[in-house]
């Protein structure tokens, strides 16, 4: 690398004591960089990577699509590392850069502080089209979004492969330094050619896995040393589940006389960049509504228990071919879960319910296996500002976990969404699907604790959605309609959960609800929902459905029925030490790992086969690079000095007896 040659020559002139200071003078490290990483499945690989030693390119700030010619053809100092404003991060531009990748060293996308006005989605237009219920065997006319294109804004960019690194950078001091470096050294004026030294960038994101999942899993099993190096890992995490009446989790399989209504929501989301996946509308709106519904049902199901149990299930990995739901179905079929499929009476799934277009919810059902689910939507929405309707025409289910249960057997159920046909979510599986997109905002000058307690308009709307969900579940479980008026979600809880997941997870409420060993997971930014939040959800769900708190977790009762979690608790007034307590609840974790990896079927068409490549270094830095001629001159001088040194050393060594001899005194000399 050009920079490394210069660095080594510079370092060779100084003692090692000053090595770090020399490096700091050469490089400016970028503080916040999030890469696109490599993912693999049964057939191919997607994502991005750099060379092992990083990719180096001369900086070029792209100002318009027409300006691409400089990068792809006319620029005299390739390869280029392209800086893109978010408005130019489109499929059209990225595919042109991909096709001209011999002149492109990488791309850095500047993420804005505000969402764009135009919708965009890097996901596909037909999410999870190959692993849902609609196949050639079930209903080919509805397969592959033949009837409804659910995500019409989907560009599929997240599923492309790029042989250069692509990083996201915040709009902050780092980007200002980069722009200034470009303006000072690289920008050509009045038709002139930029003169050396030029501003360059180096991006490190080398990925270990290649080709597909079968290849990387085979390489994982090759042991050439005592500490074999893994190259990829299956995408996995945990599902979170709980029930209104505790289920014996020790005795697996069918429960005689037990009938459950499955209430489901998905946990995960993604975007083009793995560490920026807020999923506000696509995931958070649904599971927050279901959490609030579970809280609203706690008293009602204790005071007047309905004949059927309600099983809350929060599935992880649904973005990647329904990892969590397919695992639960598989475990139920293999009698490795607390209940089996025969125990399921019906399914109610809460999908995207951010209510962007209008205050209306839609009940979607499968036209092939449709059964009368006896949902009285008028009673459920009575006295609320939100209405519940059916689409009124035949179309398949939207992408949903319920589809994986239908693949196993024709269970009646509905999926609640805020869209009648195509998604109303303009930023589906995008980094812009965030708190701003859900219109979560706070009055100025509020402290973080005041923001936590402030009930936003979004929280009020989602509270009504949660109330509808709670009442619908109560009816489905066989509860009396006369009690529906007393079932209402708590807007205070909704606004706290929204703040914690979409604004700032490191807040006083979340700190009270989690064990001390998980405090490090709390941050001052929104939660990343790319496979990794199950523990936080379990803690919050535990509070929602908990029935008893203890002073300690030493003596536990009925461990097969309950889980116990020691949480930090709050600090009393005028004290800094928290008073922890032991929380007993019916909330539990179960594996969200695709059955394909237990079965070693890495080319499976029935289950998800997604893996993520491992990597060692993720970083970016900028520096000034000298011209090729100067580098060659410097190298030549260095080689000349080396050869001269070797020649002088040889001459001096061969004449050492003459050069370093001293006059010897005669042996018989006397004094």
Automatic annotation (TrEMBL):
Family as reported in the entry's similarity comment: Belongs to the nicastrin family.
Lineage of source species: Eukaryota, Metazoa, Chordata, Craniata, Vertebrata
InterPro entries per UniProt: Ncstrn_small, Nicastrin
Ranges where the Nicastrin small lobe domain occurs: 35-209
Single Gene Ontology BP annotation: Notch signaling pathway
Record-linked CDD domains: M28_Nicastrin (cd03881)
GO cellular component: plasma membrane
Keyword Transmembrane helix found: yes
Keywords on record: Glycoprotein, Membrane, Notch signaling pathway, Signal, Transmembrane, Transmembrane helix
Source organism (scientific name): Cyclopterus lumpus (Lumpsucker)
Signal peptide: none
Annotated transmembrane regions: 632-652
Membrane topology classification: Single-pass type I membrane protein
Keyword Methyltransferase (UniProt): no
Name of the molecule in the record: Nicastrin
Compartment(s) where it occurs, according to its Swiss-Prot or TrEMBL record: Membrane
